[in-house]
Amino acid sequence: MSDEHGVALCHLPSCEKVWSAPLPALVTSLTALPGSPCLDLAVGTQQGVVFLRPQLPPNWCRRLGVD
Question: pTM here?
């Protein structure tokens, strides 16, 4: 989920916020990078692309199979 305040990773259907990061630009696209050993994200903004590596809580790392 993204808006003019940043990007958030939420669990569906509970809508529990797992992770979020503020961004100083409107987010226009978001994708997980394929083949990445972590959950690396490419976030497109009006100014360019930002690469993020979320710091997930340990229980969510286990659930997602991310080390």
Answer: 0.69
Positive or negative CA dihedral for 63, 22, 8, 25? Answer: negative
- Which residue type sits at 26? L
pLDDT digits (tens, 9 = 90+) for 6-17: 788 888 888 888
> What are 36-58's pLDDT values in tens digits?
888 899 988 888 998 998 888 88
Write the DSSP assignment of 2-57 as a string of letters: EETTEEEEEETTTTEEEEEEE-SS-EEEEEEPTT-SS--EEEEESS-EEEE-----
